[in-house]
C-alpha cells in the first residue's frame, strides 16, 4: 500500500513494511519516476542496493536514488528466512 503525500513539484509516496524476523519496521520512500517504476506488493520481499538511509521519528527510512537497484523476491537465503 502506498501512502501518497503531496509535495509541490514532486511525486512522492512511501511504504511501511516489516524488515526482518524481529518485525522491525522501515519506511521505503519513493520519489518522482521511482513511484511509477516500483512494482513491489505488500507481501513481497524487496532487496535494495545503493539507497539513501536515514531516520525520522525513530523509524528508519530508505530512499531510492537514481542509482538504486531493487530486487523483488530475490533468491537469497536471507529473503527465504524473512518469509518464514
TrEMBL record:
Pfam entry (one): REPA_OB_2
Superkingdom of source: Eukaryota
Q: Which GO terms describe its molecular function?
A: DNA binding
Keyword DNA-binding listed: yes
Q: Which InterPro entries match?
A: NA-bd_OB-fold, REPA_OB_2
Residues in coiled coil: none
Q: Replication protein A OB domain: which residues? A: 18-73
Going by the UniProt record, its keywords in alphabetical order are: DNA-binding
Name this polypeptide is given? Replication protein A OB domain-containing protein
Species this chain originates from: Macrosiphum euphorbiae
